[in-house]
Amino acid sequence: MAHIDFISGLHKRVKRDYLARVNEFPKAEAATLAKQWGRDYWDGDRKFGYGGMHYDGRWRVVAAAMAKHYGLKAGDRILDIGCGKGFLLHDIQCEVPGVELCGIDISSYAIENSKEKVRPFLQIANANDLPFPDQSFDFVYSINTLHNLLCYDLDKALREMQRVGRKHRYVCVESYRNEQEKVNLLYWQLTCEAFNTPLEWDWWFKQCGFTGDHSFITFE
After folding, report:
1. Residue 1 has pLDDT above 90, yes or no
2. Helices 60-70 and 87-95 meet at what angle, rounded to 10?
3. Which CATH number do you get for residue 42?
């Protein structure tokens, strides 16, 4: 199990006004709406979520880095847990033609509005109960998803990732390393349920028998 950072370069491109986020609209109302995982979260106003998630190719660099690091090749089966609109799966397919894709998400809106090329490979499912046999995939990953689970579901989800993978696994979750980052995370987040430091996340991984790689998103 290793710390491997594929994501922070994209994360740091975004400028965030933490005080505006927490003051511009009642945070509890925004979070309640975001957790419906519908249009408001994906394509509505920024205060409710992404503020419009449209394909712009930004995930291609992540796809290329993953493909190189894990030696992905045609015929490999890949699962994205919390795939959203499937942009990263699409870019992996572009990087490695011939891979077999699968993505799951709890948001029917995201799947219905996903990248058309990969839509046939996406389905509604929950990370804590993956509808696949043991060791079904060569590469299983989850980015910016598992921190949205309460502890009992987080436990199940990490065990499920371990169960369905047969080779490579990778997870990226939100975290904080100091009090300032904790405050920023609390101000910015809308859907997070698991607020853990890197050491606490390491405890979760070991507790659940998760042997994959990992990285953290922090709000500096």
Report:
1. no
2. 60
3. 3.40.50.150
